[in-house]
């Protein structure tokens, strides 16, 4: 399984959305990254940010590159996380952040091609 379990999707307005996700332990992304202490790779986090942005905010957007990427804490199997998405149309950027409860886990800024 490559996709997290979607618990809730929320459109806040035309440029903001939130998605609550559950990360099952059997996600393919956890295998081998790292065998004794699995964590969700950054590439999966960026991939999901783009996937949910296309579904909720920007159906025609294509990935143009990562401008900023910060990791504050790992995302672990069996965690519930919140993905916040913010599209900046004037700059053609997608900002995303993952949180576990009140703790920031990661964030980034993606340049979009449209």
Automatic annotation (TrEMBL):
Matching SUPFAM superfamilies: Thioesterase/thiol ester dehydrase-isomerase (SSF54637)
Gene3D superfamilies the record matches: Hotdog Thioesterase (3.10.129.10)
Taxonomy, superkingdom: Bacteria
Domain ApeI dehydratase-like: 13-108
Protein's name in the database: FabA-like domain protein
Organism: Serratia odorifera DSM 4582
Gene: ecs
């Amino acid at each position: 399984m490559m996709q997290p379990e979607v618990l809730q999707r929320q459109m806040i307005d035309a440029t903001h959305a939130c998605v609550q996700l559950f990360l099952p332990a059997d996600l393919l992304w956890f295998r081998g990254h790292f065998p004794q202490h699995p964590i969700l790779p950054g590439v999966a986090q960026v991939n999901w940010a783009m996937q949910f942005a296309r579904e909720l905010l920007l159906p025609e957007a294509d990935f143009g590159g990562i401008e900023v990427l910060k990791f504050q804490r790992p995302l672990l199997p069996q965690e519930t996380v919140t993905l916040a998405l913010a599209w900046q149309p004037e700059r053609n950027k997608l900002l995303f952040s993952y949180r576990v409860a009140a703790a920031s886990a990661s964030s980034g800024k993606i340049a979009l091609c449209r």
